[in-house]
Recover the amino acids of this structure.
């Protein structure tokens, strides 16, 4: 990696590097070397480097709440967006972004989706979080309560009696539910 | 032998038990693997769901129930919601056709107020279904609330509607058509509908909803009373100074912490505003004189003055009542229609990117303004009505469209669609809409609706008068009269009128 760095008369090492990389360590110990502009989309990383003056490029930032699998997904998204941004500074190529996003989530199972939401929330990537929660919302829209409980792993703590009463009162709320 | 068998049996049994146990453990492990989303994340997802979905999902568990029914969530959800246009569709009564039975699961507002007491004495009342029009990605879709009521929608605020309470004269009902919760408000000062005006607003300071009732008393003075949904008692308030507000034809617009009325039908130099919190009336001058097709509307919480300037439509914005000035934000230069009456501004998410606004006019031509573009051009005319539903007709047009255009809607209005030509003359009708224009002859596909004994048609099409009866293939086929007003409706019928023909074909006596 260091061999690719162009030699520079400048003594400042940070400005001489063509592409600065940031090392991020996931919960299961894998270290990702991420291009700086991509890593800076992760708000938690950005503020970590902005707030701590004693961190160097060699610092490996631990991300104990993010699994390797989730990290792969997140970086795929952030890299793609960085690419979009770089190519068209003023306006994102809408069609392309949408095609990418559609393909991107189609491949994700509900479990993966949730894992990524957790990670995006922790890493504080608002754009991705908005996008993913929107996808999750779409997936549970018009589903039965049972499906939604299973989706979120929520236990029904209403007694059958309470539930029956509520259902009777709000019968209309259960009209037109899609098949699970 | 037997003992051997027993031994084997017991071995088998333990094996089965063990397997069951291991399966259980496996399942438990699986369960733990389900990533447990934090409450914040769950809220973040739920807040994006339409209310219809939420209403069933709050029964997922007690925590969710308390979250979803909590104030914070409700406010957050409101910020995420798309604006829809709520409107009423009358249950169409046709001769020979009995009242159609209610759709299953239809919630009757009056039935709920009476709580099971028989509604049968009101069976003959015309009633409405409350519906809404949703506009997404440039397409409109009509959706049902499955709610029926006798009264008309007077005003709306944040998805709540204010309804006439037809069971009690002068009474009002505030309702959330999604949750079907409703509150009957006590009777205020009773006034005939043409002599009063209602506003429905949310106070940003107290977080309370408030109904404002302006009315003209016997001496001609305008008085005001307000009611908070919390305390539910009417309080008298000083009305606007004598002579400031000449008409109640224009509905008030809620923006920048106040309600605003256009005081005149035709020419307006100023608006009359009532601040929601201190309930004081004052005037605010307009950036230029408003003519008969100019209106104020709310856009993004700001007050907007939409005015016709030669061939352009200019949009002026006022961002606050104290110390702010009107600034011209947009000028629609391309393809403006001279007599377009702006009725409502909707913020739409148009695929991705900047939100856009729709300005809709009473004849359903919609103008798209790009957000932040000072020189908004009309991008597309959106054929909102009739696009997805072939038998769409004028009674599916949101009530606000008509009301804001200065039309009066009557609770007993009956809608018809006319496909050929309509001839119309009415003193008060012309007075409102076309006094400045000589009647002209026109022929187009047009739509109108009946209100009691009157026929109302949209502004642009209110041209043709008289000359067509009996000629040009049109036949006047019937008559209906209103002797008090000398009101007259002619209708030219043609073969394609279909089922409308038997309905309201009309010519009043003395006008032909």
């Amino acid at each position: 990696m260091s061999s690719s760095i162009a030699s520079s008369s400048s003594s400042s090492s940070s400005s001489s590097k063509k592409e600065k990389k940031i090392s991020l360590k996931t919960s299961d110990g894998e270290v990702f070397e991420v291009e700086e502009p991509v890593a800076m989309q992760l708000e938690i990383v950005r503020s970590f480097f902005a707030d701590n003056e004693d961190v160097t490029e060699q610092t490996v930032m631990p991300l104990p709440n993010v699994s390797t699998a989730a990290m792969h997904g997140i970086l795929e998204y952030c890299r793609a967006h960085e690419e979009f941004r770089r190519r068209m500074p003023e306006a994102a190529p809408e069609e392309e972004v949408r095609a990418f996003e559609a393909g991107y989530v189609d491949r994700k199972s509900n479990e993966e989706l949730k894992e990524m939401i957790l990670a995006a929330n922790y890493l504080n990537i608002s754009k991705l979080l908005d996008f993913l929660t929107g996808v999750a919302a779409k997936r549970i829209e018009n589903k039965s309560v049972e499906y939604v409980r299973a989706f979120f792993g929520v236990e029904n703590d209403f007694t059958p009696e309470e539930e029956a009463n509520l259902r009777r009162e709000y019968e209309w709320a259960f009209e037109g539910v899609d098949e699970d | 032998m037997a003992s051997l068998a027993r031994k084997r049996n017991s071995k088998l049994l333990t094996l089965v038990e063990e397997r069951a146990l291991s399966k259980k453990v496996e399942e438990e492990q699986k369960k733990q693997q389900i990533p447990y989303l934090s409450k914040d994340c769950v809220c973040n997802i739920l807040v994006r769901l339409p209310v219809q979905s939420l209403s069933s999902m709050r029964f997922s568990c007690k925590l969710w129930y308390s979250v979803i029914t909590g104030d914070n969530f409700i406010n957050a959800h409101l910020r995420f919601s798309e604006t829809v246009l709520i409107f009423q569709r009358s249950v169409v009564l046709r001769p020979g056709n009995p009242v159609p039975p209610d759709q299953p699961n239809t919630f009757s507002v009056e039935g709920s107020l009476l709580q099971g007491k028989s509604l049968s004495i009101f069976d003959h009342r015309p009633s409405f279904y409350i519906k809404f029009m949703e506009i997404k990605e440039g397409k409109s879709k009509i959706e049902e609330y499955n709610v029926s009521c006798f009264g008309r929608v007077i005003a709306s605020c944040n998805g709540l509607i204010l309804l006439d309470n037809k069971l009690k004269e002068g009474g009002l009902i505030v309702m959330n058509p999604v949750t079907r919760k409703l509150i009957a408000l006590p009777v205020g000062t009773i006034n005939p509908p043409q002599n009063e005006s209602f506003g429905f607003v949310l106070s940003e300071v107290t977080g309370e909803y408030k109904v404002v009732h302006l009315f003209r008393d016997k001496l001609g003075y305008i008085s005001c009373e307000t009611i908070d949904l919390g305390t539910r008692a009417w309080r008298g308030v000083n009305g606007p100074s004598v002579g400031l507000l000449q008409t109640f034809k224009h509905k008030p617009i809620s923006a920048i912490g106040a309600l605003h009325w256009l005081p005149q039908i035709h020419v307006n130099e100023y608006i009359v505003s009532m601040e929601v919190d201190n309930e004081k009336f004052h005037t605010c001058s307009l950036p230029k004189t408003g003519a008969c097709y100019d209106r104020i509307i709310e856009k993004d919480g700001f007050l907007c003055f939409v005015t016709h300037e030669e061939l352009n439509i200019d949009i002026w914005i006022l961002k606050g009542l104290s110390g702010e000035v009107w600034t011209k934000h947009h000028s629609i230069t391309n393809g403006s229609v001279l007599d377009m009456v702006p009725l409502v501004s909707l913020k739409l998410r148009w695929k991705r990117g900047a939100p856009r606004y729709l300005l809709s006019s009473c004849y359903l031509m919609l103008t798209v303004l790009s957000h932040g573009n000072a020189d908004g051009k009309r991008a597309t005319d959106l054929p909102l009505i009739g696009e997805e539903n072939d038998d769409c007709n004028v009674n599916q047009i949101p009530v606000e469209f008509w009301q804001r255009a200065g039309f009066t809607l009557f609770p007993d209005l009956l809608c018809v669609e006319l496909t050929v030509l309509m001839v119309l003359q009415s003193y008060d009708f012309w007075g409102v809409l076309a006094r400045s224009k000589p009647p002209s002859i026109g022929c187009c596909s047009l739509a109108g609706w009946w209100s009691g004994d009157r026929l109302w048609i949209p502004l642009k099409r209110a041209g043709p008068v008289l000359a067509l009866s009996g000629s040009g293939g049109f036949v006047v086929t019937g008559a209906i009269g209103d002797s008090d007003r000398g009101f007259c409706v002619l209708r030219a019928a043609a073969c394609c009128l279909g089922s409308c023909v038997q309905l309201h074909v009309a010519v009043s006596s003395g006008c032909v």
Observations:
- Residues 50 and 76 of chain A are 24 Å apart (CA to CA).
- The two ends of chain A are 50 Å apart (CA to CA).
- Chain A touches chain B through 42 residues (CB under 8 Å).
